[in-house]
Design goal:
- The protein has 143 residues and is an alpha+beta fold.
- It contains four helices and five strands; from the N terminus they run H-H-H-E-E-E-E-H-E.
- The chain has one domain: Winged helix-like DNA-binding domain superfamily/Winged helix DNA-binding domain (Arc Repressor Mutant, subunit A), CATH 1.10.10.
- It has a three-stranded mixed sheet with strand order 4-3-5, with no helix packed on it. A two-stranded antiparallel ribbon has the order 1-2.
- It binds zinc ion.
- Zinc ion binds next to strand 3.
- The site of zinc ion (ZN) has 5 residues, from strand 3.
Length: 143
């Protein structure tokens, strides 16, 4: 599958960078997971991965999400649910396995209501990142 990432004409993209963006599509991965995925594809140089991640973060193409001290990486571009400057994530914890899944929430109204709040009138908002922690309700409560 070819990456659908928007590439500016004069911007040079190495294979590793391309692979990195492809692997992050629709997923939120830790550095370790990211490395494991890229290793499978033949990219095994950790420092190259660090450098490329750093490049993407500085250019707002990849976002860091800090979840209970663990960093997850997320695409800030080409993402139908958010721009690099506005993220609403829900972390769903499985009480049985203690594992967490991060989901994108499509809710643009929430950003509009924050932007229009009088307290921000004299400020330029850099970004909004909201992390909602949740767990599935008991069966009898759901519908
Ligand atoms: Zn995200």
């Amino acid at each position: 599958m070819k990456p659908k990432v928007m590439i500016q004409e004069n911007q040079r993209f190495t294979k590793t960078r391309r692979a990195l963006l492809e692997v992050l599509k629709n997923r939120h991965l830790t550095f370790k997971e990211l490395y494991e995925e890229l290793s499978k594809a033949g990219f095994k140089n950790v420092s190259t991965l660090y450098n490329n991640l750093d490049f993407f973060i500085k250019n707002n193409m990849v976002i860091e999400i800090n979840l209970d001290g663990t960093k997850y990486y997320d695409l800030g571009i080409d993402n139908p649910y958010h721009q690099h400057d506005s993220h609403l994530h829900m972390v769903i914890k499985d009480p049985q396995t203690n594992e967490s899944v991060i989901r994108e929430i499509d809710y643009p109204e929430i950003y509009e209501s924050i932007f229009s709040h009088p307290v921000f009138k004299h400020y330029e908002i850099e970004y909004i990142r909201i992390l909602v922690s949740a767990k599935k309700k008991e069966k009898h409560q759901s519908y």
